[in-house]
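User: Round two. Same drill as before: sequence, then structure, for each protein.

Assistant: Same drill it is. First protein:
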Amino acid sequence: MNKPLTPTRTLEARYYTDPAIFDREVSGVLSRTWQFAGHVSLLENVGDYFAFQIADQNLFAIRGRDGEIKAFYNVCQHRAHELVKGTGNCRVVVCPYHAWTYELSGELRSGPNIKAVPGFERSDICLTEIRIEVFCGFIFANLDPAAQPMAEWFPDVEEQLRAFVPQIDELKPLEWVEVTERCNWKVSVENYCECYHCAINHPTFATGVVRPETYDIQPQGYCLRHTTECQNLDQMSYPIDLDANAHAGDYSSWYLWPTFSFQVYPGNVLNTYHWRGLSVDEVVLWRGWYTVGGAESDVIRKLAIQDRQTTVEEDVHLVESVQRGLGSRGYRPGPLVLDPDCGVNSEHSIRALQQWMREGVDG
C-alpha cells in the first residue's frame, strides 16, 4: 500500500518572532548575499560617493579617478571614526576626527604628524574594500569576499530584464516611496512572492494592471520569476502602447533572494522593491520608480501614487496581521497549497522561498 502523502507545511513561527534568529540572519545570510546599495546615477562624477548599510555594517561607495566604482567599510583605519555621511563629492576622503586622508582608491595619503612615527609605513594602510557588482545600473554589494557572482546566483536575469526594459541603462530614479511595516522582513517578502492573495486583496492591481488568471512564479537560481499578462486595455488603470516593443503588454518580476526585486509593469515601466529588516518585527520597504534620465512623468507619478494607496497599503495591513498571528499561541504551521500545475493559486514559490529561509538560518 502506498503511504499517504504529507502536505508541506510552512515555517514555524519562531523563524519570524525570535530575536535570536534575526540576529543570526544579520551576521549570516544578510551578510553573505548580494544586497542593493544604490543606483549608479548617484556616482556620475569622479569623487561622488554615498553611504549605505548592509546588515549591521556601515559602508560607502565612491567613483575613483579611473572611473571605476569601489565600496569600502565606512571606518577610518586610525581610530575607527566614520568617514562619510549621506551623499556628496570629494577630491580625497578625509576623516573628520583626526584628518587622516585617503585616496579615492582607498590607500592612505596623509595624516597629521604620521612621519614622526618610527616604522610607520603609509603603504600598509588602506580602507577595507568589499565586493560590488553593477547590475543593469544598480549597485549590489556582498560582504562575503568568496561569494559567487550575481550571474551565477541569478541566471539569465540580466538578459531577461534588458529585454523587458530596453532603455534600462538610461534610467534614473524618479521617486522613492518609503514604507515601514511592523513585521519580520520574511513575512513581507513572502507576501510579495505569491499572488494567491491578489484577487482577494488587490482589486486595483488585479483588475487594472494584470490578469491574475495568467500569473505564475517559477524559481530561477536564487531568483523567483513572476510572469503574467496585462489587463485588457479598456480596463488598464494607466495608458500603455502595446506596439512599443515585444514585451509592452507583459508584466514580469525578478525577486532576487533575499531583499530586492525588479518589477516591470505593462508598458515597460521599471519599479523596484528593497527590503531592510530593522529588527525581528520591523522592516522598511523602499519602492523605486524610474524614467529615462529621471525625466518628469505624469503617468509614472500617478502610477506610484496609485500603487502606494492600493497595493502597498493593502499589503501593510496583511503582513502586520500575519506578524500578530505568528505570536498567537493558537497558531500551528499550516499546509502550503502546492498545485502540480502551478499557477496563481499555488504556493510552490513559497516552498522554494522558505527552503532558502531555512538554509539562511540553519545552514
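Second protein:
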Amino acid sequence: MSQHPMKWTLLKAGFVTACLLFVTSCQTNIEATVPTAESPTTAAQSEPKQLKKVRFTLSWLLQGVDAPLTLAMERGYFAEEGVEVEFSRGFGSSDTAGKIAAGQYDLGFGDMYSMIEFNQKNPDQKLVAVAVPYNRAPYAIISLKDRNITSPKELAGKKLGAPAGDTPRRLWRIFADSTGVEPNSVNWVTMEPRLRESFLLKGEVDAISGFIYSMLPSLVKGGKSLNDLNIFYYKENGLDFYGNAVLVKESFLKENPDLVKSFLAAYLRGLQDTLKDPEAGLESVLAKGDQTMSRDAEKLRLKLAVDNFLVNPEVEKNGLGAVDPVRFEQSIQQTVQGFGLSQTPAIKEVFNSDFLPPLSERQAPAAAERKSLE
C-alpha cells in the first residue's frame, strides 16, 4: 500500500463520504417519522376503528324478514357506526323480553304488547321499544277453504290452534268482540309452534292463529296455495296493531344512548336498502343462514313483509321506525283489555323515539325506487 499513496487516499475519502451520506440519510428518515402536532403518526392513521359489540336476539329463527339486519351487516353499515353485531335466534317475544331484562342480550326483536305485560310483572326490569320497523302487525287467523269458514263470525263453535304464548291468540277476545264472535264459543288447542300448520293440514283444528309470514310458508310447503286459504287479518278487523319492534332494557339505554343510536342508524339504512332491493336483502339472509334454510320459504316471508307490513302512507309521512300516537294509544288500550292488565301505560313508557335518526335519514324510499320481489 505504501507504493500507492494516492489510491489509498482516494479510498479513505470515498469511505468517509459514504459514511456521511449514510448518517445523513438515517437522520432524514428519523426526522420524517417523528410525530408532530401537525402530522399524526402513520401507525395511528392505520389503526382500525374500535367497534363496540352489541348482543342482539332475533324474535325467532333467522328468516327472510331479518334482511334489514343482515344487509346492514353485509354492507358495513354497523361498522361505519362503530358497532359490531352478534345475533342469535330467538324463541318468541316473551323469551326475548326475559333475556334482554336478564342482560343476556343488549337489544332484540319482540312485540311491544307482550313487553307491556312483562313490564307490569317486572317493574324493576322494564324494557322499552326504540324503533318500530313493522308498521303493521302480521297477526292473522288462517283456515282452509274446505272448512267453509268465510268470515270471522263463522269461527264460532270451531277449534282454533296456536301455541299458548301466541300474541294473536292472546288477543283473541278483542278480535272476537270486534268481529261479533262470542269469545268463549271457540275451543283453543295448544301445540308447539313447529306443529301448528300440520294440525291445520291434518284437520285436527279448523283454524290457526299466528304471524302470517310464519304460517304461510309451511302451508305452501304442505301443498296449499293462497287460493286454498281463508285469511282473516287482525289489521282488517279492528285491531290495527304495530308489528315487531327493537326492544332494550331501560337501564342499558340510559348507560349506552350513543350505542343504541348507532345501532338504529345502521339498521334503518339496511331497511331502506331492503325496500329498494329486496332480492339483495334475501341473498344476505341466505348467506348468514345454514343449509336447512329454504330459499322459497324465506323469499315468501320477505315478500309478505315488503308488500304488506313495512311501508304505507303513515310511514311515508312519519318515517321508518316511528309510530302514530293516536293509533298507538288505541292499540295499547286494546292490549290492556285483551291481556287483562291492571294498568294502562303512557306511550312514552312503551316507545321512546328519542334515539331514532333524524327524519331526513330514515325516510322510506319513494315507490319508484322500491323493487318488487318476484
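DSSP finds 17 helices and ten strands in the chain.

User: Perfect.
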